[in-house]
Amino acid sequence: xxxxxxxxxxxxxxRWHDDRLWFADWTxxxxxxxxxxxxxxxxxxxxxxxxxxxxxxxxxxxLASGPRASLLRLDDGExxxxxxxxxxxxxxxxxxxxxxxxxxxxxxxxxxxxxxxxTGEPAxxxxxxxxxxxxxxxxxxDLDFPNGMTxxxxxxxxxxxxxxxxxxxxxxxxxxxxxxxRRIWAETPGHHPDGICADADxxxxxxxxxxxxxxxxxEGGERLDVVELDRGxxxxxxxxxxxxxxxxxxAASWPDFEGLATHTNWDGAVFATxxxxxxxxx
Length: 282
Description:
Order of helices and strands: EEEEEEEEEEEEEEEEEEEEEEEE
CATH topology: Neuraminidase
CATH superfamily: TolB, C-terminal domain
Number of helices: 0
Low-confidence stretches: none
CATH class: Mainly Beta
CATH architecture: 6 Propeller
């Protein structure tokens, strides 16, 4: 495991784009990149908690803004409205993934952070679809703390990490972008999956904060690989380093919910390690 950069806050939402790694520092309100020479640069500043983002097919960056209750697109250095989300929930959105058609899927825990839904009861979380024309609607409900998302099968399947249910949940993506035929893709016993990414072999990597690990699983739940860290693993992404498929992990010190309000020493960092397969195409 190689340390790429450190000294950050709560780091999240890693993305491999334009031959470099991008990641968000939620507590600093920044989206950063790491260049090939290891230089860390701030590309976007926008105070938001969470601060997740992804890229449109044309390369444009879109982020989920809590304060503005919308998706914002980076346009000539300025953040402009891409799709409004305020009509969907009074709570801020979490993760976002964009498919090859420009459809943006954004999820929302839709409850106070730290609230645990009683076992067996419907959960408030959902996934919304924002189409390229700026319209947003809920396309999947009853998700218990929806967290990381990724696409499989060339964008024909969307997988959502349900942190509080300890599982990865899959949906078929319909022609109009709707989500259908929900199924459990993999259980993650003992773990609460956070950020996830898919590889070209059809496996999914998930990050687990409390377990301080990233785990690669096959559909059905078989554990294929485990990467251990010295702090909470919040999310992961696949890219390239020195010509080899590489797993990038954003990690930080997690204080548990009781100490969250006063926690300041996140010790956020980005790590890299060799991966058995490159990222899946979406």
